[in-house]
Amino acid sequence: MSECAAERGRMAGLLLLCAASALLLAAVGAIPPPEEAARMARFVLHSCDWGALATLSAQEGLRGRPFANIFSISDGPPGPFGGSGVPYLYLTDMEISVQDLEVNSNASLTVSLAQTPYCRRHRYDPQNPLCAHIIFVGSIVKVNDSEAVLAKKALFSRHPEMESWPKDHDWFFAKFNITNIWVLDYFGGLKIVTPEEYYSVKPYGLLDAVSEVIRWEKIRVMLMWK
Amino acid sequence: MSECAAERGRMAGLLLLCAASALLLAAVGAIPPPEEAARMARFVLHSCDWGALATLSAQEGLRGRPFANIFSISDGPPGPFGGSGVPYLYLTDMEISVQDLEVNSNASLTVSLAQTPYCRRHRYDPQNPLCAHIIFVGSIVKVNDSEAVLAKKALFSRHPEMESWPKDHDWFFAKFNITNIWVLDYFGGLKIVTPEEYYSVKPYGLLDAVSEVIRWEKIRVMLMWK
Predict the structure, then answer these.
(1) Is B62 in a helix, a strand, or coil?
(2) Å between A78 CA and nearest CA of chain B
(3) Which of A26, A68, A87, A146 qualifies as a cystine partner to A176, CB 3.0-4.6 A?
């Protein structure tokens, strides 16, 4: 192969590598299309560091009434390569909502892209379906010791100050055990996603991006040998 | 009065005006101190364009269970001079939560400074009390025609796209009728604020800042005549 052809091959390869990296980054960071509701649910949950939790109040005078509160959450370290989809929480029974849960562990968790720059950047109102949000219904359960290791990694990687919270609050790791999921990310009403569908997908189109990279690498090699 | 004294007076006046303006701006934008829980509740509510609403589910298979959802809210046009403290909402009975409310209008609304740049800027975790959040318990009620004028101004000033939402959704103006308020803005647990306290305060220290400006203006005049 002549020097010119080799040089041309190297330049083409470099250009393709840049383009593929850009494609990869765009794919792993991109919001899923609305027809992929399960992936959207995983994407939004993974994008959020906190959520609003609804419980049934156990407080005197308010028994059985809905009660909304704010909790930090995490399904895994931030970034496009983490995230199990399981919303972990770090709780103490000094919290009113946790006292509610001790009487009735049923709860609902909601997370929204309004919590991220996405909606503001696209000028979507928080109540606009395009500012996607997810509603989970289920219950809060304490995790066992082996799952506590995962929960700790998920939570402390996003919420490092948790490690210094007062030890006498008897913090424990918990998770939201999901039974129902609704996705509002497009016009036409809420979409229902089953927990099975939710846990079987990945939030990011990484595999799609990887196969693109492989395909472009083949093109580069072809160009090199031309 | 000599020219020098007059010049000195004008310079002093200009400096005082700048300082007073800075003080005014700082006061009207500043978060209230944690010992002023009612003002904090007003401040956080006014700072938020949306909130999480908990209702009792009326859905088949989930009756009576808590259900959390996201709604745009407004207590008045944004900025330090607006805000009645009343959370107005723009609703349609096509929304699942609104169908819940038709069966049981009891609800809980929560808003957090985690929805604003404040907590990120101060590196407060969303579950850190210093990342203040407010919990309201009460009910959702449709507003009457005269209050709808206020609700419309409050909502459309912050959520201009609402005006173009589909007319066939039969949107209506509603408000959160507050019966209980909890403020978590400092260590030591939730603070209780009554609706009377909540509605009797202003979220911003404007009066304090205005009286400072007046005091400094008096000083300027004194300097001028020295």
Answers:
(1) coil
(2) 15
(3) A87
